[in-house]
Design brief:
7 helices
């Protein structure tokens, strides 16, 4: 029984996404897994606000990085520090999230990396915004402001409708 539960546990992440506790499916899961899935879902509470924040960060990170680099060239760790500082500590991006985005920006020709050989210690890669990066920053900023205004208009309309009720 424990071996079966162990196998079911190891396969949970694949099944959690398509089956909720109590939901009937056309592909029933064995009894042990059903029980484990119900137990797991009770222990693992989905936080929609946290998921939304993560997705918004993911979708706006390119814009934020380009904006910070528009001020002055900087290296990766300093980018993270400036993001945290400008957001009053509310925005925490991990290095594992940052560098793939920087590589994409580099491949797209939006930033230009340059190795900075220090007097001592490890060389650092300094990122500079290119002219294409400045244009992309303007495009993304305009798109963000338009999107934000649309959301504000909808939320404002919803708030005034609720107040009238």
């Amino acid at each position: 029984m424990l071996e079966q539960l162990g196998r079911a546990w190891s396969s949970l992440p694949l099944r959690v996404g398509w089956r909720l506790p109590g939901q009937v499916t056309t592909n029933p899961i064995p009894c042990e897994t059903n029980y484990l899935l119900v137990t797991y879902s009770l222990l693992y509470e989905v936080n929609p606000m946290k998921d939304l924040q993560r997705e918004l960060r993911r979708g706006t990170l390119e814009l934020l990085l380009l904006r910070i680099l528009a001020d002055q060239p900087t290296y990766g760790y300093e980018l993270l520090s400036r993001l945290r500082q400008r957001s009053d500590g509310r925005l925490h991006i991990k290095q594992g999230t940052l560098y793939p985005v920087l590589y994409r920006l580099e491949d797209a020709g939006l930033i230009d990396p340059e190795w900075d050989p220090p007097a001592r210690g490890v060389p650092r890669k300094i990122y500079r915004l290119t002219s294409a990066g400045s244009e992309r920053l303007e495009e993304l900023t305009a798109a963000w402001r338009s999107f934000s205004a649309d959301i504000d208009a909808i939320l404002g309309a919803a708030t005034s409708t609720q107040e009238e009720s």
